[in-house]
Specification:
Chains A, B: It is a multi-pass membrane protein. Chains A, B: Belongs to the SLC41A transporter family. Chains A, B: InterPro entries: CBS_dom, CBS_dom_sf, Mg_transptr_MgtE_intracell_dom, MgtE_N_sf, MgtE_transporter, SLC41_membr_dom, SLC41_membr_dom_sf. Two copies of one chain form a homodimer. In chain A, helix 19 crosses helix 22 and helix 20 runs antiparallel to helix 21. Chain A is mostly helical and 449 residues long. Chain A folds into three domains: 125 residues, MgtE N-terminal fold, CATH 1.25.60; 104 residues, Roll (CBS-domain), CATH 3.10.580.10; 170 residues, Tetracycline Repressor, domain 2. Chains A and B meet through helix 12, helix 13, helix 15, helix 16 and helix 17 of A and helix 12, helix 13, helix 15, helix 16 and helix 17 of B.
Chain lengths: 449, 449
């Protein structure tokens, strides 16, 4: 039963488009879910995709458009008239409609909006476009089922039959007072299991979670996850019910947030995919590599400063990649744990405790690694003082790297900067330079140069 | 309205426990959501947490227990009798109940199960315990609303009023034939908007998504995300309806998967948090550092082999941390993009195309960086041949690092191994060694030694 995207299927679609066999195409696509059609269209070229979009009903294609890769959607929309786009928009829920419009070039947005016929839909979309996309307002939809506390169950059932038609999925029914202020919720289940002459106020639950329209989407995601909510109402400062956010949008927020942090840790500016163009990938990758290059050139300077000991203790120079790797790896580990902890709100307790813990942890790790280095030196017949100097300096470098990896993200977070930027190349590069400098200075103190 | 965990609140709770003021404690906790109570309990010591769990009704505490940190839940459960745990289990949905039991030591599991009074609940939990936790069966709950296709809307409403009591949230109503085979679905909305004498078969949607009980949870997550589902039915090979999976459990799967990949990329064995013990954190971190150390010691060997050119071209040695950093950074970038692409099923097309693309991409990046290195050499008055040798070798190292970063994860994935292990320290370490070796060999060819 599950859909499989095959080369044969794509070829079949391409031939049907070539032959302009509209009847066959329509009957073929009729079987598929809009998400599957979007997968097929992602594989076609632009003209073919536009052909299919123009061929099918806007009831189907509006959802297909929303599921397309952003780049491909942009190309397809460029080939549709403002009126055609407006027809697609009419079929979408307000949140998706606002998203689609906001992706259009400024000058087309107005044109498309003026072509929307349904006045209420138009007004609601305009309202949503005014909110910042990173806030609850930017994520919410206007579609919801709302009842007044004074209604009876029977009257309520009658009326929500009308409202529910516009709402794809009814999660909760929101109860408002006569000023449209949110005062409770009830589930469809509560409604159908209640007696028909009961008042809504009697069966509704006044313990309703909500978020403010200006709340950050990440905070909304945290609340919905914590309380296992599938939808949450959005209110303004007067507690007036404005819209609702559903879990499917939150799933996207969680994924995007995780992807972004992962890419930052790997040294990639956010929002690229393996199949993006070489130019886009270069734009995302080169800046971080240049940062790393400057760090490496910094190390060149530092080591040049110790050129005079090259003939007396050459082994120190052999160990520099090891020192840089250790400083980098420890820093990345520490920063990753803290960044993840900050994201999950699980970093608690005092800074002093964390400092002591990180020192203890890195001393244990450093000591174990230092013993291995001494053992290695013994095996290859290295001078003992040199081995000890290298091991002890490496241990110090590890402690410092752990502290930097831990506290740079914490400090950034306290200043309201995304701590995820302090992972990956940023921490590796700064720890590389500092580590190599520290290594030579400490080894110099022990060996005496 | 939103809950804030404050030191004052925790202190207040601790004092009330100390004073054994049960009445005040009960009335305090009555106001809070179970997820909030769990947050408070996570901050208390073991005895205090057990005190609260024993004090409150199992209707509340069963949910609180499920929300606790795993370590703390384990400690609390150790202090409850098998009968007390069974009472908590009675209040939980079957999926949570099975999860809680599976966390207990083997010998206690049987004892707890035998104490469950509700025979149906007991049988269902036993069934769920038999499934692998990484499969749909391990994630599903037995609670669902099921109707027969031959029923009328009115009869259906009557009967599901009974079934719905046991189901926290009714997403979809599943339609089965007389052999309990899944043949369709309908929403509560469809039901309340239908005429009461219509047959279920007339209003139900036969286009129902489902997963097989042995499907991998990550595949279930992909399907539910793709089709924006909030619940999906689970069937066996005969299409018999066995259970359903809800989106809140899938949100957890997505989070855990993202966290695991992130930690692997940062060189941390999965499943540690910033607030775990030093021992646990060391166990998660030290193995990767030892791997990095061996890589570094490998570099020592390689560089020792080139000791004879130290007096003639010392600058090569100054550049080794830079080369290692570039090889590492490029490798991590390439592997991260591929690992993410594989996770999202967005890596398509032939391997040859990907090879050509990665070579093109790394040549562009490498060329830009090589020019900077030559410029730097010019500024610091370095010998031009040396600068060019360093730049060209670095460029080759970058290309090789990109290819390794790209193809190692792809090969692992094709062999059914999680490609995420080939990110972070693994790729950095192997690229460090290979990069430094390549650097000296190529520089030697150009300069001539």
């Amino acid at each position: 039963m599950q859909f499989q995207l095959t080369d044969e299927l794509i070829e079949k679609v391409e031939i049907l488009i070539e032959e302009q066999d509209d009847k066959e195409l329509k009957s073929l696509f009729k079987e598929y879910h809009y998400a599957d059609i979007a997968e097929i269209l992602d594989e076609l070229n632009q003209d073919e995709a536009v052909y299919v979009i123009k061929l099918l009903d806007s009831e189907t294609t509006s959802d297909v458009l929303m599921e397309l890769d952003e780049d491909i959607r942009e190309k397809v929309l460029r080939n549709l008239s403002a009126k055609e786009i407006a027809e697609e928009i009419e079929e979408l829920d307000t949140d998706d409609a606002a998203d689609m419009i906001s992706e259009l070039p400024e000058e087309r947005q107005e044109e498309v909006i003026s072509n929307i016929e349904d006045a209420e839909h138009k007004a609601e979309i305009k309202e949503l476009l005014a909110y910042d996309e990173d806030t609850a307002g930017g994520l919410m939809a206007k579609e919801l089922v709302k009842v007044y506390e004074t209604w009876t169950v029977a009257g309520c059932m009658r009326r929500i039959r009308g409202q529910a038609k516009d709402v794809t999925r009814v999660h909760s029914i929101y109860v408002v007072d006569k000023e449209d202020k949110l005062i409770g919720r009830l589930s469809l289940k509560d409604l159908i299991t209640a007696k028909s002459d009961q008042k809504i106020a009697e069966i509704s639950n006044s313990n309703v979670d909500w978020v403010h329209v200006k709340d950050d989407v990440e905070d909304v995601a945290k609340i919905m996850q914590k309380y296992d909510l599938e939808a949450i109402p959005v209110v303004d400062e007067n507690q007036t019910l404005l819209g609702r956010i559903t879990i499917d949008d939150i799933v996207d927020v969680i994924r995007e947030e995780a992807d972004k942090d992962y890419q930052l840790a790997a040294g990639i500016s956010q929002d690229v995919e393996a199949d993006d163009s070489i130019l886009e990938l270069t734009k995302a990758r080169l800046p971080w590599l240049v940062l790393g290059l400057f760090g490496g050139l910094g190390s060149v300077f530092i080591m040049k400063g110790f050129e005079h000991i090259m003939s007396t203790v050459p082994s120190l120079f052999f160990y520099t990649p090891l020192i840089a790797a250790m400083a980098g790896n420890v820093g990345v580990q520490s920063s990753a744990i803290i960044v993840q902890g900050l994201a999950n709100d699980s970093v608690k307790g005092s800074l002093l405790n964390r400092l002591l813990k990180e020192i203890g942890l890195s001393l244990i790790n450093g000591l174990a690694l230092a013993l291995l280095v001494i053992l290695f030196g013994f095996i290859i017949g290295q001078d003992t003082v040199e081995s000890v100097a290298i091991a002890v300096s490496m241990m110090s470098v590890i402690v410092v790297a752990a502290l930097i990896g831990t506290f740079v993200p914490i400090i950034l977070d306290k200043r309201g900067i995304d701590p995820a930027i302090a992972t990956g190349p940023f921490i590796t590069t700064s720890n590389d330079i500092l580590g190599i400098y520290l290594f030579f200075v400490l080894a110099g103190l022990i060996i005496g140069f």
